[in-house]
Write a structure and sequence with these properties.
With about 650 residues, this protein is of the alpha/beta class. The protein is about 40% helix and about 15% strand. Strand 12 and strand 13 form a beta hairpin.
């Protein structure tokens, strides 16, 4: 679903939806205008005010973020279309929303219930599977697991649950039946089902303000109107298909998320809290959670065995039994959704069509309360990183040379709604900032232990700076998750602390002030931990950027050791007793080299050495020197347990 489905003609509309540019007026070929001014018709939810003001794509302004229940904030995230490796453009969106999720949970006390849909049947999946001569299902399974590994490597928290399209086909069919029954969709003679966009009247186009006109339709199209979109696609040769009332086929793109998000529960609140707290459903259902059989029907809603009086069991043939996980999320989400997120390229048509489907199905005025959209990752200053432009870097390739913490700080230094330029300069600056923070933390700890020479500091000024920083960070995060402002405030505190440490080292003696530095270090580390950045690994090797950097460090260390050995064994013009005396004097150097070799072996680094003849003027190879650096391929690129084999010349007389 992080998949671009359209041309660049929508770019001005999408930028406007993010509040990053002017909104174009309707013109020739633009399409029809949506109803009303920005925000008109939006219903401010009732519930818990989080204290955050968030930019809502529905209103194109910052609105108070009010959730139905702080103990169960419902959040749906569009997930991947799993036909290939994910790239940094995808990573940027997922990392940004992971940061927001962590902030809402750890700063503003929200318990987030996040569902992520996985599109595992799609035109691109089918095409790629045919090219590779594998089944679409096996291809999708492969890249779904690949995606999850990439997210773990980036330290993105997993959603509360992943839901695949192919696991929800009966629910999708029931949902489509409900939309048809309510007069918003129609079936054709070919077995396709389309959403009747004209049935929405002027309610369509709320996210982008002006709905772009439809692209050219094929001459054999069976749509009533060119703008109608597919809910169910009739089967084609060599494509996966499922049985349905309209014939064999598969779901359309937009219906997937609507179905996964859907709900029809009449009593969501108490049940959700009981399940979340690990309690049984006693009082809501007379049977225990292991015995309760709950069923869901697209037309009738919930039914089951042992429910409270007033509910009836549904006997429709396509009424499906829901497992406990699916039931939980239907109960949490109800007919309204707190937060919906995705890349800005999904605002139209994907999210716009989701709104149309869900409000038609649930017959409600407002299905999703807040739509959050992340800006693109750009390369070369203007191009969006995408597979279609062939300008992408896979997440795996990136992490072979850089740290996930560096990439996360790179994302933190720009607002989540803004486009961000990818380049070596920005990544190096993020790495430099991480190094500076880690170095300050280490120096401050050394000062607290008395290992750093220093005298008195302006303690009152530091306490005041700490309090001011806490307020500035809280204010920034409450203002549409302004992470650049929060990071700037924290870095200002670090710079102030560094200046005080430097001044103290220049004037040794006098009373020390360890408490204030302890409080500052604790707060700085807590801030970065909150947004998912770890400083612990950098206290020993600040600025380490990943396996490639580690390789370089080991090579430099071994190269230095080689030069020391060569010096220790080279006797120049000396001969006889003079040569033996030189070797005796330099033996401690050789012993140190041997000790280093043993110590490195304890950390998984093995040095394999060749013999080199030492002539009158120094060492000389009897055969070509070789150097080889290998890692265990089976190990994760992020694993600290590395094994190296390095081959360098060893000097022998």
């Amino acid at each position: 679903m992080l998949l671009t489905r359209g041309a660049g003609s929508r770019s001005s509309l999408l930028r406007a939806a993010l509040g990053l540019g002017p909104r174009p007026g309707p013109g020739p070929g633009t399409g029809r205008a949506a109803s009303g001014a920005p925000g008109q018709g939006w219903l401010q939810p009732a519930g818990y005010d989080t204290g955050v003001k968030v930019y809502n794509s529905l209103t194109r302004r910052k609105d108070p973020l009010i959730v139905s229940n702080v103990d169960a904030v419902s959040w749906y995230s569009c997930g991947p279309t799993v036909y290939d490796h994910a790239h940094l453009g995808h990573a940027c969106s997922y990392v940004r929303f992971d940061i927001i999720r962590r902030i809402l949970s750890r700063v503003f006390g929200c318990n987030i219930i996040m569902v992520m849909g996985v599109t595992d049947v799609d035109d691109k999946i089918i095409k790629r599977a045919n090219e590779m001569n594998v089944s679409p299902a096996s291809l999708a399974n492969l890249y779904e697991e690949d995606f999850k590994q990439d997210m773990a490597a980036l330290k993105v928290l997993p959603p509360t649950v992943y839901l695949r399209v192919t696991d929800n086909i009966p629910q999708i069919i029931a949902f489509i039946e409900g939309v048809i029954a309510r007069g918003h969709a129609y079936c054709t003679a070919k077995g396709n089902v389309y959403f009747d966009l004209q049935s929405r009247g002027d309610k369509y186009g709320r996210l982008v303000g002006v709905a772009p006109g439809p692209v050219g339709e094929p001459v054999d199209s069976d749509k009533r109107h060119p703008s109608d979109f597919a809910l169910w696609k009739a089967v084609k040769p060599q494509e996966p298909a499922w049985a349905s009332p309209w014939g064999n086929g598969r779901p359309g793109w937009h219906i997937e998320c609507s179905t996964i998000c859907r709900a029809a529960a009449s009593q969501p609140g108490p049940v959700v809290l009981q399940v979340l707290r690990g309690q049984s459903c006693t009082g809501w259902c007379r049977l225990g959670p292991d015995s309760c059989s709950v069923r869901f029907c697209g037309t009738r809603g919930f039914s089951g065995t042992g429910h409270v009086a007033g509910e009836q069991k549904c006997h429709r043939p396509r009424c499906v039994t829901l497992d406990s996980v699916t039931l939980l999320f239907i109960l949490v989400f109800g007919s309204h959704l707190d937060i919906h997120s995705g890349g800005i390229d999904l605002a139209f048509p994907h999210h716009e069509n989701e709104i149309a489907q869900c409000e038609a199905f649930h017959q409600c005025r407002q299905w999703g309360n807040y739509f959050l959209h992340a800006g693109h990752l750009h390369v070369k200053g203007k191009e969006k990183m995408s597979k279609s432009l062939k300008n992408y870097i896979t997440i795996k390739d990136f992490l072979r040379a850089a740290s996930p913490d560096v990439f996360r700080l790179f994302c933190l230094r720009s607002g989540y709604r803004s486009a961000v330029d990818y380049g070596d300069g920005a990544l190096l600056e993020a790495q430099r900032l991480l190094h500076a923070v880690a170095a300050f933390a280490e120096d401050a700890r050394a000062y607290m232990r008395g290992q750093l020479a220093g005298g008195p500091v302006q303690e009152d000024a530091l306490w005041e700076s700490l309090g001011r920083t806490k307020g500035a960070v809280q204010e920034a995060l409450a203002d549409d998750f302004n992470t650049p402002g929060a990071v700037d405030a924290v870095m200002g505190l670090v710079h102030h602390g560094n200046r005080q440490l430097k001044a103290a080292s220049e004037e040794p003696g006098g009373p020390r002030s360890p408490a204030v530095f302890g409080a500052i270090v604790s707060y700085v580390e807590q801030f970065f931990e909150t947004v998912g950045v770890s400083l612990v690994d950098r206290q020993c090797a600040a600025g380490a950027g990943g396996p490639a950097v580690l390789h370089s460090v080991v090579e430099e260390l071994v190269r230095f050791r080689l030069k020391v050995r060569q010096f220790a064994l080279a006797t120049g013009e000396a001969s006889g007793e003079a040569q033996r005396q030189q070797l005796l004097e330099r033996r401690p150097l050789l012993e140190a080299c041997d000790a280093l070799r043993r110590d490195l072996a304890a950390h998984g680094v093995s040095i394999k050495e060749q013999h080199v003849h030492v002539g009158a003027t120094g060492p000389e190879d009897r055969r070509p020197q070789t150097r080889e650096l290998r890692t265990r391929e089976a190990q994760s690129a992020l694993s600290p347990d590395k094994s190296f084999i390095l081959k360098f010349p060893v000097v022998a007389v």
